[in-house]
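Students often ask what a holo structure prediction actually looks like on paper. The answer is less mysterious than it sounds. You provide the chain, you provide the ligand, and the output is a string of discrete structure tokens encoding the 3D arrangement of the protein together with adenosine-5'-triphosphate.
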Amino acid sequence: MIELQHLEKQYGGTFAVRDLSLVFPEGELTALLGPSGCGKTTTLRMINRLIEPGGGRVLLDGRDTRDLRPEVLRRGIGYVIQQIGLFPHLTIAQNVATVPDLLGWDRQRTARRVDELLELVGLDPAVYRSKKPGELSGGQAQRVGVARALAADPPVLLMDEPFGALDPLARDRLQQAFRAIQQRLRKTVVLVTHDIDEALRLGDRIALMNAGTLAQFGTPAELIHRPASPFVRQFLGEDAALRQLAGRRAAEFVRPGPAGDLPAVDGELDARSALGVMLREGTGTLAVTRAGVPLGVLRWEDLGQPGEPDA
Ligand SMILES: Nc1ncnc2c1ncn2[C@@H]1O[C@H](COP(=O)(O)OP(=O)(O)OP(=O)(O)O)[C@@H](O)[C@H]1O
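The corresponding structure tokens follow.
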């Protein structure tokens, strides 16, 4: 768990971050969201002390991060940034092995770990292990960046606009891949983004910042349905509820239940389209299947919709 207590940073007398107190829950992904210049990156970098806090403190599992040497602290925290900065002269395997090498792992253990991670991020080790970063697409390089950050299995992962430089298709794919990885690994992740859809799609929680302070912290549904201020409502936009559903798959909302002869949708269908099917069919419950196998049912209220669907 990461806890910020009255964290602050000033530049030339102006607050970049001001009296920020916040708990990032363990095993969850929190999106640090907000307009340009609101202090997201400064906050993130104060967690791993790439920027020293001007005031307040950061606790990692209850421990004040000032009590650790910065390089020791950083070895226990994965860090992924937009231009991932892979070492161009090293192979992909050597890049992924950066932290295990620093930690003095033996060769076999490191090699096994590298292959395991490349597989996890969807790159065939046999094909990619010996390539150089210059031979990869942007999306592939970003996958290597994620693998490298996870190499020594750190409990905490900090990500600063990790998908920001990718074209929409590659971004979409990588977001989906990352979501699946996170569902498996359950790291404590802080993801900086100014992209509302990304925050709605990936965040278990959202910490929305405005001018160096916290505007609201909560689940996407809480921010959408109970915005704490006009700023929150305006920032998310009128159609936030539907946009959130567009980024999630029906399978994510499934609960156990008999399918009977309910209209069925595939679990891979996005939840917004599933909502459309409910409206078309005039039903509040759908059967969800995957490759024809029943997964359970999807209900109108589980999609965060008030009232009942009108046929
Ligand atoms: N090294 C610095 N020197 C002076 N001012 C800085 C410095 N770093 C950040 N700032 C200022 O602090 C504020 C917060 O910057 P920060 O990069 O944390 O915002 P951000 O929310 O991450 O923005 P973006 O999404 O545009 O990256 C901005 O007004 C920025 O201009």
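Residues 168-185 form the longest helix (18 residues).
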